[in-house]
Amino acid sequence: MEQFPQFKLENQNGDIITNDDLKGLTVIYFYPKDNTPGCTTQACDLRDNIEAFNDLDVTVYGVSGDTKESHQKFIEKKDLNFDLLVDENNELASAAGVIGDKTVFGKKVRGIVRTTFIVNENNEIVKRFDKVSPKKHVEQLLEFLKEG
């Protein structure tokens, strides 16, 4: 099985999270930007369904290139109940292969393409979801995890 890239990132509180913190199954989802419509939809859907993930012993982490302060504001504003990791230089996003060309408001830009990984405690990628739909994301994840 393919390995998830090694990482050492701060969460919104400045705590360091690394691959060693991944216990059991972990959802690591990459999203473009805090407080944007699609990213907010996705984060709030995860928030509203976090108990379903907890019941399956699955941890959720969001990753974007935003700052710790931006993550804190996003969490407070939307009452998020999971950690957001700071990848300001997109080092993890690049290593995970989720940087690409996309169209934003009619302009071609390069950045994080919405992608989610399910990683096990051995740092192996169990499943990768590409070009994730913010509205259907949680449904897809829970369906896959329950089939386990």
Architecture overview:
The chain is of the alpha/beta class. It has a single domain (8-147), classed as Glutaredoxin (3-Layer(aba) Sandwich), CATH 3.40.30. The chain is built from 5 helices and 9 strands, in the order βββααβαβαββββα. It has helices at residues 37-48, 50-55, 68-78, 91-95, 137-147; strands at 8-10, 16-18, 25-30, 58-64, 83-86, 99-104, 107-112, 115-119, 125-129. A 5-stranded mixed sheet has the order 5-4-3-8-9. Strands 1-2 form a two-stranded antiparallel ribbon. The chain has a two-stranded antiparallel sheet with strand order 6-7. The longest helix is centred in the first third of the chain and has 12 residues, at 37-48. The chain is globular, with a radius of gyration of 14 Å. 31% of the residues are buried. The model has no long low-confidence stretch (mean pLDDT 95). It is an enzyme of class 1 (oxidoreductase). Residues 1-148 form the Thioredoxin domain. Keywords: Antioxidant, Disulfide bond, Oxidoreductase, Peroxidase, Redox-active center. Monomer. It catalyses: a hydroperoxide + [thioredoxin]-dithiol = an alcohol + [thioredoxin]-disulfide + H2O.
